[in-house]
Amino acid sequence: MSCVARRKTVLLKSLERPRSWVLLVLLSVAAQQLVAAGMIYAKAALAPVLMERAWEATLAAGGEVHKPWPWADTWPVARLRVPQLGIDQFVLAGATGNALAFGPGLDAAGARPGAPGTAVIAGHRDTHFRFLQRLRPAMSLQLELPDGRRVSYRVGDARVVDARQPQMSPATDGPAGLELVTCYPFDALQPGGPLRYVVRAAPAGGTPAAGTPAAGTPAAGLAVPDLFPVHPSGGVFEL
């Protein structure tokens, strides 16, 4: 073999080595992504089962907190049912992104369900709280509490508010009430918009919470379903 041929062979081998390393790195990254995606789907499938077990343990212990898995940063604090729509969801502690990935979350700024004041539960418009657009006035909601009590509510009204505007904090005393909050509009292409859709409910047989605006006051410029009186103000929280 001539000297020139030998040089070409050495050069080709030296070029092949970086290519092999690049291919190995790409394969490793692809494998990591596949494993991560598999874990996400596995957790999404397993989470409801673990949440239900944690809730049953909480009920059996008279309200003592039980986490669905040891490192969880949230846990079930109530069970929300809407019999007419077939909705049965666990409400989790905190309205943060980590909690909302697994279900609606109880906002710590509001009251505890069943206690005086307004309890606020938030959820994503495209998953757990998509059903809010199907609620109708006088529809029945039910919250099961950690001590086993069940509190029934009746849907009152719905409104759209702008999260960029100053909002009142939810009442932590006075008449009991419930607010279900999600992003709006439900069919928005981009997530994280400023509008919030708020459904308010009062205990079954009770009266609306104090400070409720007069029915029939329209929210200017907002196209909302003609199912409820729509009001322009009230407490709303970032989702």
Automatic annotation (TrEMBL):
Its EC number is 3.4.22.-. It holds the Pfam family Sortase. The chain crosses the membrane at residues 21-42. Keywords: Hydrolase, Membrane, Transmembrane, Transmembrane helix. GO terms for molecular function: hydrolase activity. This is Class GN sortase.
